[in-house]
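for the record, two folds in this file. i put them one after another cuz i was lazy. first one right below, seq on top, structure tokens after. the second one comes after a little note so u can tell where it starts
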Amino acid sequence: MTSNISWLLLLTSFVGADDGSKLVKVLIFSRHNVRSPLSDVHESYSSKPWPTWPNEFGTLTPRGWLLERIMAKYISLWLQQVHFPVDCSTNVDIYTNNIERTISSGYAFVEGAFPQCGFPVRYDSGSTIDPIFSYSSRNLTPEYEEGVQRYLKNKLLEIDLRESLELMQDIVDVKNSPKCKEEGVCDLMSWGHTISIVPDKEPLLHGPIAISNKLVDTFLMQYYDGFDMKDVAWGLITNETEWKMLLDINKNYHDIIFNDTNIARDLSLSLVKLLKKYLLEDDVKFRCLVGHDANVFTITRLLNFTTYELLGQNEKTPIGGKIVFQKWYDGNTDRHLLKIEYVYASFKQLRDMEELSLENPPMRVTLEMEGCSIDSDGFCMWNDFVQILEAI
């Protein structure tokens, strides 16, 4: 109890501007932080030696823990700056998906944001993935599947990733890979794509874009995890333009799979309804949910976020990035307002593991939803937001 009181006093002691506005609730949806590759399936596409990782596939790396703690510490400083007192015993909830990288990210967040509190992270202890965070297909009526297949095939026709795939092909040297020698797959250009939609499984794209996305993910995690640059894609990504070209594969892969309203509704309706409950119906002042990039894609699609650009980043859903829903009360007009920001570390901040602070903050981009127009300060009317949630 003493530690909770001391932390509360620390938060309330910060002096900031008093303009008649007051932050009354914060809900964060966060992507987990830096992890090792999800599997070794990518390794057969190159005969070059792959660097080893210090941890098991798909788990948070030690550096990922530190990066999450750094971001969380910044969040706590921001809470102090805006006079947002938090009583850890009653007004904080950290809820994560039930796999290692999200649970560990949750505990790292607690360690950074609320070091005096030491409360447990909440997650479903069952053996299967928490359905709230699952991005598996649920609605598999023939009409739905036919519509999704048609949408995905049309999306594939709209994109042109030839230059990006050629660059990836050159980096991994597919023609000399085990995949080429053993299975005859000797390039990332000439073979086609297929799409699978299976009950209780993530919608999957198969083919060059999907394989290249796994390779991009591996190189990106190497970069974020501080690997020597000669070991990040064997030193063959030489400038920011090439990073952007490769990450176009990542962006388009997720856009193909998740950027359709029907797919987003199928995959994330339970999650969005839970966010609605947390934002509208309960009294917990600060919540942080930790999930995955797929969750971020489907949340922003289902809630009709307008197109946004993340400065200083080449990812659309940066590792460790956080969508921060803020409910404010404006005492001057006696009304509640909403502000949503994407708070994330830049490409450089992640690579250099920079200490974040009010003087050296992470990137913050204000987001907007259709039907909830923002003013010059990034606020929209809370009642408009409520109408959007009620219509989901």
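(here's the note) second protein begins now
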Amino acid sequence: LKKKVTSSKLNFFDVYLLVVSDTEVSYTEVSCVFIERCMLPCSYGGSDVVIHWHQVSAGDITVHSFYHNKDQLERQNQRFRGRTSLFKDQISAGNASLQLTKVEVQDEGRYKCYTSTDRGNQESFINLKINGKSHIKCIHSRNFSLQAENIITCSSEGIYPKPELAWSTSPSSKNTTVQLTEQLLYNISSSLIVSDSETDQDYSCTISTHRNKKRATLFKRGKHVQDL
């Protein structure tokens, strides 16, 4: 009995390895912008296709399925309802790409596109990264409560992932705040006090994430502060 059980396990394991070895695997990285639409690429060869999209990093949840020549959304995760579609007029030509609309921060992660046809099985893994749709601004204002001093503020909203802010100078005073919004984006702001006695000075502010960075600059000539 012991030999039979062992043999059964080995046979199952061999079949599993055979399926894996017959499955073509590819990896792709895609960057998309928050709240916009996004396309996750996937292609296949053959006919009578079965397509399954899953978000692997979120627990292998079902994102979109297609078989019997139509969408099958009964098991689709609620978070993706009304936001996914395939390119129906291109499926017969081998296009299994997924279109995702109103992209959310929670959409970031690893996806798997599984296709099965008369030619075999394929798995494509897509690493989706989300970037916030943001811009940086640097403004000057007069602090009337403090004589002969100006305030320069650098800020940006709707950033993802979490940003950092750095000034090109070493100001005597600065205050940087980072806020997390309900949409899981970040707002960042920093202010520094500039004395009228400081002249001919450039003030550059850089807001960066580990993916990109943006810079804004003001320059002070005499008592005047202007955009560079």
